[in-house]
């Protein structure tokens, strides 16, 4: 709840619409919990998520991965269910193909142009002439409508200090605002100006000229986000319950049944000063056990050692002991499960929340 | 088929029973294909796999992850279905607890002792006095029966040359045989002597005094196994179909919709001279495109570049092009899917094979 409320207050304070990215939780229950039980605008990373959240009554959805012609039929079906689905592109040829498909199928696609603010991934530079070229195509042709611009400051994941994060957030804001300005100056509409990532959303000081904020991991947080200063390890609301299965008294480690399948092979904290291997170790009640991390992850075996190689009284966690592992990267770890067990007081399961997986 | 037959011939030649580890494929269809459509002894990494394969008619199963008391109820239920389920342990206290549970529940557990031949993970040294102590407990108490010994030469994954692999296989054989000898000399039975891993199974020159060979990844192979000389990249029988979704003409990369969720975050080839990032890139027909690998994997975005940073004509793979990615680690990649599409001639789906996931 704390994680959900913090981001909600942040968006309210900055005067923008919070459009949660459901790629992390993939669970309507989590998003509804963060919005007084009411549906809200969301972002999805797969069309499967769009369908799943549409089933749960969500009707305002941005699919924030570049659209390709082969997925238009499915997108059309989602729109025909009454969903205001917005898609993103960064290519003029694709813009034309979407228009053609829309025109032929009596369907008007709301298209956003993806902007690249930090050379991270897909998208066009704010000042690239292609932005205006694509805006013109989308606005003027049949079958498409220009809905706005969108960016994701993915490079903010590399920021090491609070100052760098604040700067990354301001860079994201300034550049997406400039892209929108360029489009408006050229005479085209640009209603939605969307930016975000958990780090930049957390550290944004102002979001002038931005209309919407996206973030996903904040709902659970994880060891990577905590290491980057977006939360603390105690804020992490997702854990993998496991059992100690083997114990060598003469070795400085214990083995659990939570390996790569249960935790994922994500090692995003690797190489940082908050490296926690494959996860941070807690007791069954969720209290972090100082200095213990998951240093190895075979398929169904997790190897727990001390972080710094120092001695530890592993005998106090005999075979059969249940532990919790806080994930390196919540999105990847949650993907191994079909549902969440919501716990109170460590072990009392008070609810079960479903989630979708796949594509 | 070639991968399946090769391991089958290897086991036949060495005079041992092949007991496939189904942790990789988790699909009865694959295992049946490798055994003329008939069920056979198998190894599982989760009780879920045991249940799933029992549903498909498999009745001789080793659960090759240390048993803990909390899972005995479920193991009992599997046995009550007529499955000859064998479990493994490496601890005397757990041996006693299993006996107690078996005795109280009118159930006789077939227990194997896990042996550690290379300090890789769980298990006892072949000559550890605990091996005999546990053998005695299992053999003499009510509720358990001693079924044999089992080891997994996990460190063989670190071998860099053919000679090292042959030596790792011989070390695995010699040490598990010695553990069995010790038990028999102490006056206890030791019917099953089980060893294996895809690298050692592939490179074993003889398996004297061993009764069973286990291996899992060989059914599909992957970039890691190929790099280690257990197959070639052309033998890899598992691929992820994806689509080029973004393209920057001024940058030496393309972006696909197969990211960390689709490929897994496994980077087991990292740091080797066959490092392929998150996978090897093929055209739709499965022909490897020289020098292209997946160097980055965000949640739903895969970044493809040349392996050595050299120039490449990415324009020949425009947005919408479908590609196949051969996985770094087949077990982890396959886990993202509920079924396999079996293809012939690149794209003709001729069958669908189901698989289980979860625990």
What report would you give on this structure?
Two copies of one chain form a homodimer. Helices cover 30% and strands 23% of the residues of chain A. In chain A, a hairpin with a 4-residue loop joins strand 11 and strand 12. Chain A has two domains: 2-219, Alanine racemase (TIM Barrel, Alpha-Beta Barrel), CATH 3.20.20; 233-337, Beta Barrel (Lyase, Ornithine Decarboxylase, Chain A, domain 1). Chain A is α/β, with parallel strands linked by helices. In chain A, strands 1-8-7-6-5-4-3-2 form an eight-stranded parallel beta sheet. A six-stranded antiparallel barrel of chain A has the order 9-10-13-12-11-14. The mean pLDDT of chain A is 96. The first copy, chain A, is elongated and about 75 Å long. In chain A, helix 5 runs parallel beside helix 6. At the A-B interface, strand 9 and helix 10 of A face strand 9 and helix 10 of B.
How much helicity do the residues of chain A have?
Answer: 25-40%
Q: Can you summarize the main beta sheet of chain A? A: 8 strands, parallel
**What is the CA-atom radius of gyration of chain A, in angstroms?**
22 Å
Named CATH architecture of the largest domain in chain A: Alpha-Beta Barrel
Short characterization:
Chain A has eleven helices and 16 strands. By secondary structure, chain A is an alpha/beta fold. In chain A, α5 packs parallel to α6.
């Amino acid at each position: 709840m704390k994680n959900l409320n913090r981001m909600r207050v942040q968006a309210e304070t900055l005067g923008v619409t919070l459009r949660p990215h459901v790629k992390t939780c993939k669970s309507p229950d989590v998003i509804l919990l963060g919005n007084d039980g009411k549906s809200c605008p969301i972002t999805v990373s797969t069309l499967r998520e769009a369908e799943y959240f549409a089933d749960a009554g969500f009707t305002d959805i941005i699919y924030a991965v570049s659209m390709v012609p082969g997925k238009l039929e499915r997108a059309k079906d989602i729109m025909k269910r009454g969903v205001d689905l917005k898609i993103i592109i960064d290519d003029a040829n694709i813009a034309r193909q979407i228009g053609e498909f829309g025109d032929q199928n009596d369907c008007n696609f709301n298209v956003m142009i993806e902007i690249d603010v930090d050379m991270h991934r897909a998208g066009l530079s704010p000042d690239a002439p292609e932005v205006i070229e694509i805006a013109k195509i989308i606005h003027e042709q049949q079958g498409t409508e220009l809905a706005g611009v969108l960016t994701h400051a993915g490079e903010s994941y590399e920021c090491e200090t609070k100052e760098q994060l604040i700067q990354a957030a301001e860079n994201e804001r300034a550049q997406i605002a400039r892209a929108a300005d360029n489009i408006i100056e050229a005479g085209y509409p640009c209603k939605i100006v969307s930016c975000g990532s958990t780090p930049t959303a957390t550290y944004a000081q102002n979001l002038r000229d931005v209309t919407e904020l996206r973030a996903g991991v904040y709902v659970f947080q994880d060891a990577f986000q905590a290491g980057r200063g977006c939360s603390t390890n105690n804020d992490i609301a997702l854990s993998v319950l496991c059992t100690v299965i083997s114990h060598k008294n003469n070795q400085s480690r214990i083995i659990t049944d939570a390996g790569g399948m249960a935790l994922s092979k994500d090692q995003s904290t690797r190489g940082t000063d908050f490296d926690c291997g494959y996860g941070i170790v807690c007791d069954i009640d969720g209290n972090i056990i100082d200095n213990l991390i998951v240093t190895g992850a075979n398929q169904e075996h997790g190897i727990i050692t001390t972080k710094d190689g120092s001695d530890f009284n592993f005998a106090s966690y005999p075979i059969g002991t249940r532990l919790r592992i806080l994930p390196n990267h919540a999105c990847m770890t949650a993907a191994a499960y079909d549902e969440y067990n919501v716990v109170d007081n460590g072990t009392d399961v008070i609810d079960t929340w479903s989630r979708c997986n796949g594509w």
